Structure formats: structure tokens, C-alpha cells
Known about the structure:
By secondary structure, the protein is an alpha+beta fold.
Amino acid sequence: xxxxxxxxxxxxxxxxxxxxxxxxxxxxxxxxxxxxxxxxxxxxxxxxxxxxxxxxxxxxxxxxxxxxxxxxxxxxxxxxxxxxxxxxxxxxxxxxxxxxxxxxxxxxxxxxxxxxxxxxxxxxxxxxxxxxxxxxxxxxxxxxxxxxxxxxxxxxxxxxxxxxxxxxxxxxxxxxxxxxxxxxxxxxxxxxxxxxxxxxxxxxxxxxxxxxxxxxxxxxxxxxxxxxxxxxxxxxxxxxxxxxxxxxxxxxxxxxxxxxxxxxxxxxxxxxxxxxxxxxxxxxxxxxxxxxxxxxxxxxxxxxxxxxxxxxxxxxxxxxxxxxxxxxxxxxxxx
Length: 335
């Protein structure tokens, strides 16, 4: 079954399409969507269809910042009822934790991880659609929305060091500089935002603890949509953990509050195994990294969790039928 996301994810689509002179109707039809489906922000739509709509629109509109343009006018209220909970969290850290806890009411395909190192924090974010698909537009939309969420809570105190992307820079950085008022880093090893650890603990001036308790009860009383399978949840974890060198079953189980045996059993019940899921994610990320010419083969192997280049070469050759150096040479010739 295809993964689903809220129609609110595509808010502002028509405005951006109109600005670029696009006719949305054939694009919607090709993606299997309609205006009616997008009219209700809480309606669930296929994630693959949303990804195709964004990528097709960006390509036909000649606009590699289509997703980011959609994020530019996002407001806290666009998070729906969960926004009432977020605005009353005492700190940005609490708001991020709430976003992760209730992501099934927002976008189940978003993976967020807060990594702290001394005085610096990396807020990693990935949009993890169905296997075999990827989207520059979706990740820029997600990062834009996250950046604006942090800004809405901290106001002028939100001054991150940088916003990072695994893909390359666009020809024109005007939109990126307008949305992200900080350093921009492309061709990096992760998608996410780097900020001071103090930012996560800065008091939210809008927070009302009593209201937060009330809204939490309200949010928890809402009927949850059909949840993703455990295999999908593990895929999201691995998208974050693999480039960090922590893509182990022990790490995933710990992050999900269960022991290894319980995780294995739940995967077995879903007719899946951890090794199969790990290899599937590794294959998807391998294509992402290999297509980026700025990543050396040594870096690609490290990001995929291989300690030795020879191990990476053996695995890649078995999966793709050719050595990584030859694959990249053929890819460059096609491009």
C-alpha cells in the first residue's frame, strides 16, 4: 500500500504554479490527484503522487525551487490542531519532541532527529517516501517548513548557523537566501539545520503550560490515521542513522523503546527483516550519493556504513552489477 500524507502538505501549490504560468490540471491528472482532493487539508493523499506533482511542476516550470517557494508562506497554523500544542511548548526542544511524537497527525514520512555535540545541535530531517522515489522539492519544502516553525516559536532569537542539503545548489540562490536567513551548505552529508544548543532551550514567550496540558489531551483524543508499518518506520530511522554511522538494529530498537528481539518479531509479522530493510535503504541512498559528483567514492562508502572501500565495492558490484567507478563513469556519460 502506498504511503499517505496530509493534503495540507501541498498547500500553496496552486499559487506557486500560477506564478510560474503552469496549468495545474494536467499535472494533477498525471499524478492521480485533483483539486477536490487537495481542498481538505486533513485528507490523506498518496505520498508518491505528491512527490510526482512537485517534481513534474518544477521541471515543466523550469523552477528548481518550486518546493521551497511553497514553504515560503507557511505558517504555524498550517500544522493543523497540532499547532495549538506546538505554540504552547516551553522551549523549541519541547516543540521538536512534540512534532516527532505526533508526526502521524502531520506527515508520517518525515523523519527528524536532534543530534547534540557540545554547544552545537544538528536538526536532521528527511522526507522518506516509498522505496525507489526521491524528491529534491519535497525535502526543500520540508526544511523550509521546519525553519519557519522554529522562527515562529523563537522570533528574532532564531539565528541558526546553517541550513544543509545533500543535493547541489540551484543556479540562482535568491529564493534560498530569502527563506533561510543564514549560511547555505549544499552537497553536504545530511539534510538539516545547524544551530546553537542554547536555541533549543530558549524560553518560548508564547507558552502557556496550562493550555499545553489541555491541548495535549485534545490532540491525543483525535482518531489516529492508519499508521505506517514497522518496516516503514525502520526505513525512516535508517535514512537518518546511516550517514551518521549508526544504522544498527540495536540503535533502531533503542530509539523505538524496544529490545532487539521485539523489533525482529514485529518485522517478521510484517513479512520483513532488518537486513532486507537496511539493504533497501542503503541501495536508495547509494543512488543519491553516487549521482552527486562532489562525493568521492570513499565518502560514499563511508556514508553507506562501510569501514573499508573494498567492502563498499563488493557490495555495490553485487547490487548494481558493476563496480562503483564504472557506474559513475557511465552516469556521467549519460548526463
